[in-house]
Amino acid sequence: MPTRYSLVEVEKSLEEKFNANVVDKENFIDLNKDAWANYANIYKCYEIKDPSVLNSIFNAEEITMINELIEFNQSNTGHLQSDENKMWKDIQEGRLIRVVIETTDHLHISAFTMQGVCEKVMDELLVLSGIDPQEAHLDNKRYLNYLTLLKKTGYI
Hints:
Blueprint: H1 7-18, E1 21-23, E2 42-48, H2 51-57, H3 60-75, H4 83-92, E3 97-102, E4 111-115, H5 119-129, H6 141-152
Antiparallel strand pairs: 1-2, 2-3, 3-4
Helix pairs in contact: 1-5, 5-6
């Protein structure tokens, strides 16, 4: 059972499971200000915006939250929207998920950023991030959580 996945496997998973499209790293320049992201380590950036995919991956809680945000945003219209504000509105309203993959070794994910809320995408990214092989033992809670995610996402 793999404990780490290659960047090629990450790409394949995002593109095949979520119809994710690669987008230019420059679209994520704001991550320079994010203390949790390392812009220099960005490997690839993706957008998930296929309506049929998005409609199939949100869980009930996420759908409720999205509907509440749509209702809230509709009641607060009238402001001119920049492209950036429109992008954040699309994320809030479930029309867009953005994913940034970082790597330090050019082989595996070292970190990721997800803009948008979707448990299914988050679980996939956590699995693809892997776990240190030295942590792969049954008395390690982190490893047990990893095994649970592998099962939940269909890897085992």
